[in-house]
Design a protein that fits this description.
Layout lengths: L4 E2 L9 H5 L11 H17 L6 E7 L2 H11 L6 E6 L2 H12 L3 E6 L8 H10 L3 E7 L1 E2 L4 E2 L2 H10 L3 E5 L11 H4 L3 E5 L10 E7 L3 H5 L10 H9 L9 H17 L1 H21 L15 E5 L6 H10 L2 E2 L1 E2 L8 E5 L6 H20 L1
Parallel strand pairs: 1-12, 3-4, 3-5, 5-8, 8-9
Antiparallel strand pairs: 2-10, 6-7, 9-10, 11-14, 13-14
Bound molecules: pyridoxal-5'-phosphate (PLP).
Pyridoxal-5'-phosphate (PLP) binds next to helix 3.
C-alpha cells in the first residue's frame, strides 16, 4: 500500500530508521541511559549547525510552541521591552505570548506575506531604548515568506540588543548563519525540517546570555530556560520528558549530520523548485513573490470554483495531505509544504494528481 504523503508543514514523513527508533527499550529518565541520550541530542544539535562553541541546546518536551514559550518567557530583563516583528500568524503568536506573561511588548507590523521594512526596524530601535530583545519569525509558515533574518539581526547587533528567532519551520530548511544574524535565542522543533517526531522542541541559546538569564525572576515554573539549562548541563531533567521521542530525534539528528544541513537545504530547495514549476504550469497563483519564498512551503490561491475542503478531500483520497490557509486566508488559499522524507517520485505524483483534481474541481 502507498503511504500517505504529508505536505503539511509538520509533522512530516520520517524515514523508517527514525520510526524504528521509537521501539527501543522502555527507559526511566532518571537513569544514565537517558542522560546519555539527552546529551547526545544536545551535542548533535549544536554540531549539526556548527555552533558548538557559542551555543547550548536546551530541550523541552512539547511542540515547538513549548520551546518558544520557554525562550519568550525567560529572555527579558525586568523593566525592559520586547519588540516583535510581525507579518503572519506566528509573529502574532509571539506577541500574544509576551502579553500573556505581562511583558512590555511593542509590535512592528507589515501585511502578511510582505517582509518588514529595515528602516522601520532601525527607527523602532533608535526611538525605544527600553527594547532589550527583538523577536522575529525566520520562516513565516502562514504564507511561506522567508524573513530577512540576517539583515534584521545585523541591525539588532548594531544597536546592541538581543535577537530571538522563531526558526521552528526554518531550521535545516532555509539557511541561518548564526554568527551573521547574531542570534541569541533560536527556537526549533523535532518534527519539521529535522525530520523527527512531534514532542520535543528546543532553544539554542548563546552561552554568554546565561549569566543575564540567571538574574531574571522566574515567570514560568515549567518553561524557565535558565533552570532547564542548569539541570540539563548536570545530565538531569526538571520534569518527565517524552523518552521515545528523544530516541527518534537522536536518530533523526544522525541522519541530518550524515546528509549535512547544507545538503538538506539544497534537497528541499530542489523539491520546491520542481513543485513551483508544476504549479506555474497549472496556472496557479502564488501568494509570495519568488524572491521572498522559503525553500519549504508554497502558498497558492485556490483556483476559481475550488474550495479548500473539496481539494483537500480529493487529494487525501489519492494519498496526499495538503494544508489550509489560516485565519483571514482560510477561505482563499491552500498550502503545500515540502519538508520531510518525501521522494521526487512522490512530488511528481502529487503534481499529476493536483492537475487532475483542479480540472475536476473547476468543472464541478
Ligand atoms: C514559525 C512557526 N512557529 C511556531 C509554530 C508552532 O509550532 P507547534 O505547532 O509545533 O507548537 C509553527 C508551527 O507550524 C511555526 O511554523
Amino acid at each position: 500500500m502507498k503511504r500517505t504523503v504529508l505536505l503539511n508543514p509538520g509533522p512530516v514523513n520520517v524515514t523508517e530508521r527514525v520510526r524504528q527508533a521509537l521501539l527501543k527499550p522502555d527507559l526511566c529518565h532518571r537513569e544514565k541511559e537517558f542522560t546519555d541520550l539527552m546529551q547526545s541530542i544536545r551535542s548533535k544539535l549544536v554540531r549539526a549547525f556548527g555552533i558548538q562553541n557559542d551555543y547550548d541546546a536546551v530541550l523541552t518536551t512539547g511542540s515547538g510552541t513549548a520551546a518558544l514559550e520557554m525562550a519568550v518567557s525567560s529572555c527579558l530583563s525586568e523593566g525592559r521591552s520586547i519588540l516583535v516583528i510581525r507579518n503572519g500568524v506566528y509573529g502574532e503568536r509571539i506577541s500574544a505570548m509576551a502579553e500573556a506573561y505581562r511583558l512590555n511588548t511593542l509590535c512592528l507590523d507589515t501585511p502578511w506575506g510582505e517582509p518588514p521594512v529595515l528602516d522601520d526596524v532601525e527607527q523602532a530601535l533608535k526611538q525605544n531604548p527600553d527594547i532589550e530583545v527583538v523577536a522575529l519569525v525566520h520562516h513565516e509558515t502562514t504564507t511561506g515568506l522567508l524573513n530577512p533574518v540576517h539583515e534584521i539581526g545585523e541591525l539588532v547587533r548594531k544597536h546592541k540588543r538581543r535577537f530571538l528567532v522563531d526558526s521552528i519551520s526554518g531550521l535545516a530548511g532555509d539557511p541561518l548563519d548564526f554568527d551573521r544574524a547574531g542570534v541569541d535565542f533560536c527556537v526549533g522543533t523535532a518534527n519539521k525540517c529535522l525530520q523527527g517526531f512531534p514532542g520535543v522542541s528546543f532553544v539554542l541559546v548563546r552561552k554568554t546570555e546565561l549569566p543575564r538569564l540567571a538574574k531574571i525572576p522566574e515567570r514560568s515554573h515549567y518553561f524557565n530556560l535558565y533552570k532547564n539549562h542548569q539541570a540539563q548541563e548536570k545530565g538531569d531533567t526538571l520534569f518527565t520528558p517524552a523518552v521515545q521521542i528523544h530516541y527518534a530525534l537522536d536518530v533523526a539528528l544522525d541522519e541530518l549530520i550524515e546528509e549535512t544541513v547544507t545538503d538538506r537545504i539544497h534537497r528541499y530547495s530542489r523539491a520546491a523548485a520542481m513543485l513551483r514549476k508544476g504549479f506555474q504550469e497549472m496556472g496557479l497563483e502564488f501568494i509570495v513573490p519568488e524572491e521572498h519564498r522559503s525553500n519549504t512551503l508554497t502558498a497558492l490561491k485556490l483556483p476559481k470554483g475550488a474550495t479548500y475542503p473539496g481539494l483537500h478531500d480529493r487529494l487525501k483520497g489519492k494519498g496526499f495531505v495538503i494544508y489550509a490557509g489560516q485565519k483571514k486566508l482560510s477561505e482563499s488559499i491552500f498550502r503545500i509544504a515540502n519538508m520531510g522524507d518525501v521522494t521526487t517520485e512522490e512530488f511528481q505524483r502529487l503534481l499529476d494528481t493536483l492537475k487532475n483534481c483542479i480540472s475536476a474541481s473547476t468543472l464541478s
